[in-house]
UniProtKB/TrEMBL annotation:
Record's keyword terms, sorted: ATP-binding, Coiled coil, DNA-binding, Endonuclease, Hydrolase, Nuclease, Nucleotide-binding, RNA-binding, rRNA-binding
Family to which this protein belongs: Belongs to the DNA mismatch repair MutS family. MutS2 subfamily.
EC number from the UniProt entry: 3.1.-.-, 3.6.4.-
Chain coiled-coil ranges: 529-627
Assembly and binders: Homodimer. Binds to stalled ribosomes, contacting rRNA.
Gene label: mutS2
Residues that, per the record, bind ATP: G341, P342, N343, A344, G345, G346, K347, S348
Record-linked InterPro entries: DNA_mismatch_repair_MutS_C, DNA_mismatch_repair_MutS_core, DNA_mismatch_repair_MutS_sf, MSSS, MutS, MutS2, P-loop_NTPase, Smr_dom
PANTHER family: OS10G0509000 PROTEIN (PTHR48466:SF2), OS10G0509000 PROTEIN-RELATED (PTHR48466)
Signal sequence residues: none
Descriptive protein name: Endonuclease MutS2
MF terms (GO), sorted A to Z: ATP binding; ATP hydrolysis activity; ATP-dependent DNA damage sensor activity; endonuclease activity; mismatched DNA binding; ribosomal large subunit binding; rRNA binding
Length: 788
């Protein structure tokens, strides 16, 4: 239940329905969209939300649904229901194409059985009676005209008409040629009058041709005559046409009679088409507003994450602006959020966003918020928005507010969502404040949920001291005197009345007079609130900077872990190779000793032969030592100067890398994902063959990464923090890879994002300078960043 009824207009739900109608293909779909209501049945809401989510998935990720025509099959079925009635050719054609669409849609989802269970439920247990379509196809062709061979009689009549028309045309052509040869005809050719083919004859010659005069020209000099011989033939054609019309009616009546038993099934098909059109519109609208499927729970409450007002989002989208997202939670602990803050700071938009998204969700519409958001189900939604004064009812603005408060207090319960804008206004604040506080206390005792906006200090204090109520404020930059449109839960906000008045330009002496007229306590409270706002802003900025630094630390930590992993793998490879080499040495040495012993035995310990064998053994062992020694480390290569692309080893460690750049006596070396600088004297050139394959592959992948890196980024439409994070990642990679310049597309707008990005990049020493793109190619909407 929604009270008052005009709340659907004030919260924007009526506009949502109108936007939904624009996506419907049929009048039935638009009618269903117009009748859409806020529901409170959990199962029904869940079904409708899932249907919309599945259709959105079809539109975005699957083949196009075969929807070509939507016609009102219900009106055709109701007409068919009446005995003795018949559908016309055009009506049967509309039924034909609608049924074709129905069967194509059912076939589409049957091919994807189990993929879209909630959409499949739309036609569950609905039989596919293709005999209806076959019966229509035998009579009506693909252009919506009755087939000439729909019956034997119709075929004969059609042939007779064609032959009679041919004979009549031949006869009148003969008479026309003869009259023209005699000079009786006027300028022009054969013409049609009253549906009859006539000869234009000069008025003075009209007696020379026997026939029926159908018309004459405006001047009276030309008469249009149907010759007597042709008159008889045309009458025969007219009789045949009447006969054809009677046969067509007979065929259509027979077809209608044959299909009359299928009227209930046709009405079911109509229901499917109507629902399909409506759900399709919901899917398209969800794509327009970037809506998602929230988690639905069967209890009052909400947890909105990055929520946006859909109408505000569409309006800003046209102007290439972004909506500041809303994050708010309403649960058992925080039942009512009391929002305060400056005028034009976004309090009402915040409240209307919560109310509208709740209505949309309970109407089965996807909402523009993260999929991790959660919405509950309310039995009642009460709203007090705007001025409802009425001359007819003798109600002032405040009386209208009080009438609503009376209804709220009497009928609200724990499953009621209340939305009250500018609570307590419309009368003397000295009395309006306490009344509003009493109403809020009474509503809180009923465990209602909702959002209240106010400027009254007593309501802020009451919310801070009462369980179930929670203060919140819209953040305000009191240095630049502009609202930030960010909801901060936990503390009340100042109205910034004096600050805003000063910015607008109200004379200082007037401001001083106003400040002297307010009480000391009130002035102290407002000053305290302003200070709290300033501190909150500083904490917010500090937290933002801390998050950035944390991301940097995490990135460095990840790189260090990768380097450690690389070094460990390199160490394991070297140990494994050394062990294999040692095993080969031992194996070869054993074979050599065994061969020597066998030789001594075979020569029967001949002294000379034994001496030769021992010398050979010592020689081979000496060679083995020489070859075994370098296995402990990578062999240095000193045959040439170190160049870019060479593999080198740091002398004070076993770390191997590739030379990326040479600057005087220094070399820049790539080691995995890292870069390091070392003196030429501290490195040794090594052979590429001796560098492990996995190390070479690592560098190859880095080269590919460099090749695929794009020095251009588009941050239009992003939030400031997200844009800076994306730019920071690109900037780090660019510095690492030695890129000379970057191109950032941020759009013009109010210039806020441009200023934010440039101020952020100025703090980096690696930035040489920044400049706008050429005016013809984007101007101040694009920034070029040049690196040192």
């Amino acid at each position: 239940m929604i009270f008052p009824e005009n709340s659907v207009d004030k919260l924007g739900f009526t506009e949502i329905k109108e936007l939904l109608k624009q996506h419907c293909l049929s009048d039935m779909g638009r009618e269903l969209a117009g009748r859409m209501q806020v529901m409170n049945n959990f199962e029904q809401i869940n079904k409708f939300l899932n249907q919309a989510a599945e259709f959105k998935n079809v539109l975005q990720n699957d083949d196009a649904l075969p929807i070509n025509h939507f016609y009102d099959v219900k009106s055709l079925a109701n007409k068919m229901r009446v005995e003795g009635s018949f559908l016309t050719e055009d009506e049967f054609f509309r039924a034909q194409v609608s049924l074709t669409t129905v069967f194509a849609v059912i076939g589409y989802f049957n091919d994807r059985e189990g993929v879209y269970p909630f959409l499949e439920a739309l036609f569950e247990h609905l039989p596919v009676e293709k005999s209806i379509l076959k019966k229509i196809d035998l009579v009506i062709d693909q252009k919506g005209k009755i087939r000439p061979n729909a019956s034997r009689e119709l075929e004969d009549i059609t042939s007779g008409i064609a032959k009679a028309e041919q004979d009549a045309r031949r006869k009148i052509d003969q008479i026309y040629k003869s009259a023209t040869a005699n000079g009786w005809t006027a300028d022009g050719s054969l013409t049609v009058r009253d549906g009859r083919l006539c000869i234009p004859v000069l008025a003075e010659n009209k007696r020379k041709i026997k026939g029926f005069v159908h018309d004459e020209s405006a001047s009276g000099q030309t008469v249009y005559i149907e010759p007597e011989e042709v008159f008889t033939l045309n009458n025969h054609i007219r009789d045949l046409e009447f006969e054809r019309r009677r046969e067509v009616i007979k065929i259509l009546t027979t077809l209608t009679d044959e299909l009359r038993p299928f009227v209930p099934l046709l009405l079911s098909y109509h229901g499917l088409l109507t629902k399909l059109d409506f759900v399709r519109a919901k899917g398209l609208f969800a794509i327009d507003i970037e809506a998602g499927m929230p988690k639905l729970v069967n209890e009052p409450g909400a947890k909105l994450i990055n929520a946006r007002h859909p109408l505000l989002y569409l309006s800003f989208k046209k102007e290439h602006k972004t909506v500041v997202p809303l994050n708010v939670t309403i649960d058992d602990a925080t039942r009512v959020v009391v929002v305060s803050g400056p005028n034009a700071g976004g309090k009402s938009v915040c409240m209307k966003t919560i109310g509208l998204l709740q209505m949309m969700a309970q109407a089965g519409l996807l909402i523009p918020a993260d999929d991790s958001s959660q919405v509950g189900v309310y039995k009642q939604i009460f709203a007090d928005i705007g001025d409802d004064q009425s001359i007819e009812s003798d109600l002032s603005t405040y009386s209208a507010h009080l009438s609503k408060m009376k209804y709220f207090v009497e009928h609200a319960n724990a499953k009621t969502l209340i939305l009250i804008d500018e609570f307590g206004t419309g009368t003397d604040p000295q009395f309006g404040g306490p009344i509003a506080e009493a109403v809020l206390e009474s509503l809180n005792q009923k465990k209602v949920r909702g959002v209240v906006t106010t400027h009254y200090s007593n309501l802020k204090i009451f919310a801070g001291n009462t369980e179930g109520l929670e203060n919140a404020s819209m953040l305000f930059d009191n240095r630049e005197m502009r609202p930030l449109y960010i909801l901060e839960v936990g503390k009340p906000g100042s109205s910034y009345a004096f600050e805003i008045a000063q910015k607008i330009g109200l004379p200082q002496n007037v401001l001083n007079l106003a400040k002297n007229k307010i009480g000391f306590s009130q002035k102290k409270v407002d000053t305290l609130l302003v200070d709290l706002e300033r501190e909150k802003k500083e904490i917010y900025d500090t937290r933002t900077n801390l998050d950035k630094e944390t991301r940097k630390v995490n990135l460095l930590k990840k790189e260090n872990e990768q380097l450690k992993s690389y070094l460990e793998e390199n160490k394991r490879n070297l140990i494994r190779e050394a062990k294999q080499e040692a095993q080969n040495i031992i194996l070869n040495a054993n074979k050599l000793v065994e061969n020597t012993i066998a030789g001594i035995k075979s020569s029967q310990a001949d002294k000379e032969e034994t001496r030769k064998l021992r010398e050979n053994l010592n020689s081979e062992l000496q060679k083995t030592k020489i070859h075994a020694a370098p296995a402990k480390s990578v062999t240095p290569v000193n045959d040439s100067e170190v160049k870019v692309g060479d593999w080198v080893k740091l002398k004070d460690s076993d770390t191997t890398g590739q030379v990326m750049e040479i600057a005087r006596d220094n070399v820049i070396i790539a080691i995995g994902d890292l870069r390091t600088v070392a003196k030429k004297s501290k490195v040794q050139k090594v052979s590429k063959k001796e560098v492990p394959k996995d190390v070479r592959r690592s560098y190859s992948s880095q080269t590919t990464e460099v090749a695929s890196f794009s020095p251009e980024i588009d941050v239009r439409g992003m939030r400031g923090e997200d844009a800076l994070f994306a730019i920071e990642k690109m900037f780090d990679r660019a510095v690492m890879m030695g890129i000379g310049s970057l191109k950032i597309l941020h759009g013009k707008g109010d210039g806020i994002l441009r200023k934010l990005i440039r101020d952020y990049l100025k703090k980096y020493d690696q930035v040489s300078h920044m400049e706008d793109e050429h005016a013809d190619r984007g101007g101040s909407g694009i920034t070029y960043v040049y690196l040192k």
